[in-house]
Write a structure and sequence with these properties.
By secondary structure, this protein is α/β, with parallel strands linked by helices. Helix content is about 35%, strand content about 15%. Strands 3-2-1-4-5-6-7-8 form an eight-stranded mixed sheet, with helices on both faces. About 0% of the residues have low confidence.
Length: about 300
């Protein structure tokens, strides 16, 4: 009689004592579940959150070494302030924060909110912190990057002015996350850095994201889905944690192993052809540098 090997979970996270991690959007959902797992393994975790009081309230319920710092990804001045205040090494940056399917709005810098928050904010943060990062960057994407309708980067209208649709904007931002990871890894490898860039998606996880959907009908449908179909936030955080801990190649993409990648244990998964195009990734990087005023720096692990 053979015993099926157990699937990867938080108990497989190695000792993180002496390591430091930043988790964006860390006061609820996938973020706080990620914090809980990392802090529980001994890491010092910085909760990078827009609302410090909410972050402190969330951290109070988690055991381990933590601190809360303000970060508003929809405001590039806040991103710069957060990065400028960083001192010392940073082992792990987890770009987890995001907004989903919200009504049309803009960031403080005038970008469409989903693209500006989910992609541009994390693009700027990563590059500004990269001189401190010593291990890896994990960016949370979504299966929505390959929604029906062939999501693409609308280079001619990134803000979707005059053609805004919440799902289209969300899909574009999640596609951008994967293209960012692809080009970041290329640049890291080219520079000789040992830092790795990876991406993950949670499958269908019940979080606060769904409650902000711009459609009342979709909110109602997702309330039912969250109750009867979705994984909880701890299960949804496992792909991110797997990408952060396992010895995987740069640019790897991790998601659940179940039907339709909706739930299950973390494993390597595929991405759409649009998310695998190096030319589009390079073009998006150039545009993102122009929009944010932030460029790729010398990574920390490159020998002087």
């Amino acid at each position: 009689m053979t015993t099926e090997p157990s699937k990867w979970n938080v108990t497989d996270i190695p000792d993180q004592t002496g390591r430091t991690a930043v988790v964006t959007g860390a006061n609820s959902g996938l973020g706080i579940a990620t914090v809980e797992a990392l802090a529980g393994a001994g890491a010092h975790v910085v909760l990078a959150v827009r609302d410090v009081k909410r972050g402190e309230a969330a951290a109070a319920d988690v055991r381990g070494s933590m601190e809360v710092r303000r970060l508003d990804l929809a405001d590039l001045a806040s991103v710069r302030e957060f990065a400028a205040g960083w001192q010392g090494g940073l082992d792990l940056l987890i770009n987890n924060a995001g907004v989903m399917n919200i009504p049309e709005s803009t960031t403080k810098d005038g970008f469409e909110m989903q693209f500006g928050t989910n992609h541009l904010g994390h693009f700027a943060l990563t590059n500004l912190l990269l001189p401190h990062i010593t291990d890896r960057v994990v960016t949370v994407s979504s299966g929505a990057h390959k929604m029906p309708g062939s999501p693409r980067i609308r280079f001619d209208n990134l803000n979707l002015t005059g053609e805004y649709a919440p799902i289209t904007a969300y899909s574009q931002s999640k596609l951008a996350n994967l293209l960012f990871t692809l080009e970041l890894q290329r640049r890291l490898a080219e520079s000789g850095s040992s830092v790795r860039a990876l991406a993950a998606h949670p499958g269908y996880a019940a979080t606060n994201l769904q409650s902000h959907d711009g459609s009342a009908l979709r909110r109602a449908v997702m309330r039912v889905g969250n109750r009867f179909m979705a994984q909880d936030s701890r299960a949804g955080a496992l792909p991110t944690l797997y990408a952060a801990m396992q010895d995987l190649p740069g640019a790897s993409y991790v998601g659940p192993d179940g039907l339709g990648e909706m739930r299950g244990a973390p494993t390597l998964v595929g991405r759409s052809p649009a998310a695998s195009d190096p030319a589009t990734a390079r073009r998006l990087w150039t545009v993102s540098e122009e929009l944010t005023g932030v460029a790729f720096p010398q990574p920390a692990s490159v020998p002087a």
